[in-house]
Backbone:
């Protein structure tokens, strides 16, 4: 199994084989929490105007996401696992657009298949890849706004790669690095006041680093009219 760690939009374009598009803070952690709260369908889109159009055409859809870490006008939710965990999405369709994660999905067209990546379902991701036995795995780190690498995404890619190769991981060291070390600045945005509460509450940090909380992967599949959806696949533990 050839495993490559790639970065940002260019990395997504280079992805081949089975691609894992990684966005720890927060897109693909949030997507797992939304799925766990009973969502029927998540439609990931890169273009925010497409998201707005889908909401106009389907008023019952839930519009979720951010730009620059901040919830956008007309959105029902930001990109927060804290807020997602408190909501009931049973039977609903969520349109999800973010600065980094969903951009990776939009650009990973050269891969044979695409799943999302985060720490909250890392074990399921590893087991899914082992089941699929691809010749090539592309671990795509989407970084800060898809413009610069972010430690948490690279560390997640390294964690998955180590696990696939049978190497030990020190998750406590990962958390310490992101909470106290050099990785504490950058991707995890500590917005202040109202912005923090509505877009990026500080509790998201622990929600995004709840290792192996979920036992499923989210696979990107065709939906309709050129759109894609995330399908939940339970992985036996």
Residues:
């Amino acid at each position: 199994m050839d495993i490559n760690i790639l970065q940002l939009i260019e990395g997504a374009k280079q992805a081949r084989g089975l691609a894992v598009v990684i966005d720890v803070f927060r897109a693909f952690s949030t997507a797992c929490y939304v799925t766990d709260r009973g969502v029927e369908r998540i439609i990931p889109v890169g273009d925010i105007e497409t998201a707005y159009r889908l909401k106009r055409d389907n008023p019952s859809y839930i519009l979720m996401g951010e730009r620059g870490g901040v919830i956008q006008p007309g959105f029902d939710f930001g990109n927060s696992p804290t807020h997602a965990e408190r909501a009931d999405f049973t039977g609903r369709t969520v349109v999800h657009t973010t600065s980094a994660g969903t951009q990776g999905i939009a650009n990973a067209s050269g891969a044979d298949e695409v799943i999302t990546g985060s720490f909250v379902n890392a074990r399921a991701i590893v087991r899914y890849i082992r089941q699929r036995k691809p010749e090539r795995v592309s671990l795509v780190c989407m970084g800060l706004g898809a413009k610069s690498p972010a430690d948490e995404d690279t560390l997640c890619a390294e964690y998955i790669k180590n696990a696939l190769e049978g190497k030990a991981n020190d998750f406590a060291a990962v958390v310490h690095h992101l909470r106290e070390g050099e990785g504490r600045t950058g991707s995890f945005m500590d917005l202040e006041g109202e912005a923090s509460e509505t877009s990026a509450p500080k509790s998201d940090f622990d929600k995004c680093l709840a290792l192996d909380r979920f036992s499923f992967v989210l696979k990107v599949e065709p939906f309709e009219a050129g759109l894609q959806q995330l399908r939940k696949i339970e992985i036996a533990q």
